[in-house]
Amino acid sequence: MGQTEFGNVFWGDNGHLILEWEGGYRPANPEAVNFQLPPGGQEVYRTDEYEDFNMNHKADWFKSIRDGHLRPAVDIEIGHRTATLCNLGNLSYILGRKLVWNGEKQEVAGDEQANRLLSRPQRYPYVL
Fold it and tell me: What domain count does the chain have?
């Protein structure tokens, strides 16, 4: 990692992506900026109506509601996965240790303390 106090490193089969916070966004690695779609790959749908990314995100969501047949580019499943990564990064920072996520089971592998922090206690009869 760089000179920051905290951040996230996502390891994949073909490399890694480093995200850091320095009071602003760190530019993406050259590999991400210069990414070329592999043969047989599909370009992800996105809206480019506005210069502002957040406005494009909102416009895409409204379009999916208006048209009624499109899923937004960032649907609930992607939103869940994104929020999970953010929560895991924060948990790792709070606990001061590396966490290994099991996406299939939706739990931190072998870490009961971290798993307890994934949700808050629920009050009967309002339980899931």
Answer: 3
